[in-house]
Amino acid sequence: MSDAGFGMGFGFGGVLASALEAFGPLCVGIDPHDFLLQDWGLPSSAAGAREFGLRVVDAAAGRAGIVKPQVAFFERFGSAGYSALEEVLAAARSKGLIVIADAKRGDIDTSLAGYVEGWLTPGSPIEADALTINPFQGVASLESAMEYAADNGKGLFVLAATSNPEAARVQGARVVGSASDQASRTDPLATATVSRAIIDDVSAFNAGRAEQGPIGSIGVVLGATVDFAALGIDMNSAHSPALPVLAPGFGHQGATATDVRRLFGALTPFTLVSESRSLLQAGPRGLAAAIDARAEEVRAALV
Ligand SMILES: O=C(O)c1cc(=O)[nH]c(=O)n1[C@@H]1O[C@H](COP(=O)(O)O)[C@@H](O)[C@H]1O
Q: Could you say which EC number(s) this protein's record lists (predicted)?
């Protein structure tokens, strides 16, 4: 595969670049909700979630570059659910799909290391290519996880501005002294929103690993339903290496392909357009065509 016009680089950024080049930015969610299992004629059980996940993988392979299993819908079935998830993860990775495990983990750094070892160690039974991470304990608590990911060719997507409307109260709160915020260096009392500070801190980590290539290994989650200006997030500020963005909020939550450029500005080439229910409700027979159509729609909107 050729590079995506940004130079391939190595590490997770390079893996993302090749998927974006080959398939465009669509990320297919694997969310076996009960109502979907029922619509698909599958039982609400680990076996149903396994079958659902494997069918989504089959439909996505060769049509999209990235899948995002929602771990919650497997975890609810306990060890049998994890066993099902292991099969889905392995099937997806064996078909060349990039797998983002959506588990939203977070803890003090030594405990977080346990999660990251499980999800991001090559050869682990739950190995994924990247993991979603919750930074509520401070971005500094993620430091060793970010290092582990970058050292192992893996990625993290750190929640920064999530798509749910309840998030604004916490994520829009203002904090003093964002790490790489220019204003905070000249005025020690200058503030940034929590969302903006998380983006700056993640970008600063990637800058320290610039030798890995033009796209960073650590990305952020920015929901496509969010009012970014209200959070003080400027999509046109520079990030070097480029900052990968996982963007849920498309389809069922309201955003559409035609919103991508307006919302993500200069970050558009590194933004993964993530949809779950709006694709999955096409059912097992219609899913492949739905993925083809949406992948094409998203690519066309970005030309
Ligand atoms: O990390 C995520 O993917 C995520 C972050 C966020 O801010 N909002 C959000 O909806 N998600 C996840 O993205 C998926 C959205 O599903 P749909 O609304 O059905 O497309 C779910 O698995 C959510 O858990």
A: 4.1.1.23
